[in-house]
């Protein structure tokens, strides 16, 4: 069974339809990169998948849990809030701007939600957090504060925070867009290592070559629709659709 299934998703802001009939599935252990021009709806799709935005029409399912679907009147209905809280532990989300609490230590940023929201034992969560910090090369930074870390280090803390609940799937929303090239390579290395561990991931990225190397599948979006999707090499090196060809040729020309 797929980890994530999105079916005929539609999202509108006012009179503007941002996502138009989007359908996609993500299988366990699969890495899917979503590419496309600014304003194509990539980040909105991630926000809908991670329950930060409510969809207007369509379906959303995590493994065997139907999170949202249209009722007989065509209105999209979600699970009750107490059940949605459980669903939120099934995925992790890494933002482009880190979203760390500046007044919390690095360790507290990671352990706060599992302890306070999920009521997990503190000793267990701290031990897991320290293992994750060690994995991210940040074991000596547990007592530091976000302002004392580089952007790359802060993003690694964000990844550790997303992994603390052992999610079924990890979402990345432009994880390197706020970083300079040197720090970008740090984060791409971490994501590559997670891919080698068969972590299920959906990555919205503008790093086209990275997407080609790390992804099993690439989805190209433009104007709120999926224009083309398929194996990474096929979509990026041999795109079939003219819109995909135009986008990729422009990216190559700008390098």
Write down how many β-strands occur, each being a DSSP E stretch of 2 or more residues.
11
Major pleated sheet: 6 strands, mixed
Low-confidence stretches: none
The span between the termini is: 40 Å
Helix- and strand-based class? Answer: alpha/beta
Please work out how many helical segments DSSP would assign.
9
Q: Could you tell me the strand content as a percent range?
A: 25-35%
The succession of helices and strands, N to C, reads EEEHEEEHEHHHEHEHEEHH
Estimate percent helicity.
25-40%
**Spatial order of the strands in the main sheet?**
7-8-9-3-10-11
Specify the overall morphology.
globular
pLDDT averaged over residues? 93
Q: How big is the Rg?
A: 18 Å
Protein described:
The protein has 255 residues and is an alpha/beta fold. The mean pLDDT is 93. The termini are far apart. The protein is built from nine helices and eleven strands. The strands form two sheets. A six-stranded mixed sheet has the order 7-8-9-3-10-11, sandwiched between helices. The protein has a five-stranded antiparallel sheet with strand order 2-1-4-5-6. The relative contact order is 0.16. It has a domain of 67 residues. Helices cover 38% and strands 26% of the residues. β10 and β11 form a beta hairpin.
């Amino acid at each position: 069974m797929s980890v994530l299934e999105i079916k005929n998703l539609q999202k509108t802001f006012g009179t503007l339809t941002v996502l138009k009939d989007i359908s996609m599935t993500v299988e366990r252990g699969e890495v899917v990169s979503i590419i496309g021009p600014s304003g194509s709806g990539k980040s909105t799709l991630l926000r809908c998948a991670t329950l930060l935005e409510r969809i207007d029409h369509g379906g959303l399912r995590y493994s065997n849990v139907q999170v949202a679907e249209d009722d007989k009147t065509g209105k999209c209905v979600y699970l009750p809030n107490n059940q949605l809280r459980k669903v939120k532990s099934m995925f992790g989300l890494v933002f482009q701007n880190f979203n760390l609490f500046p007044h919390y230590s690095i360790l507290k940023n990671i352990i706060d939600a599992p302890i306070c929201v999920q009521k997990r034992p503190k000793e267990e969560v701290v031990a897991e957090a320290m293992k994750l910090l060690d994995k991210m090369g940040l074991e000596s930074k547990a007592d530091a504060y976000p302002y004392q870390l580089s952007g790359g280090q802060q993003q690694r803390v964000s990844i550790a925070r997303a992994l603390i609940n052992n999610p079924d799937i990890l979402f990345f929303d432009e994880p390197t867009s706020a970083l300079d090239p040197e720090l970008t390579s740090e984060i791409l290395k971490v994501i590559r290592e997670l891919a080698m561990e068969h972590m299920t991931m959906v990555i919205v990225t503008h790093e086209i070559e990275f997407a080609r190397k790390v992804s099993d599948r690439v989805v190209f979006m433009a104007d709120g629709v999926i224009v083309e999707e398929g194996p990474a090499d096929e979509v990026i090196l041999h795109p079939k659709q003219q819109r995909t060809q135009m986008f990729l040729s422009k990216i190559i020309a700008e390098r």
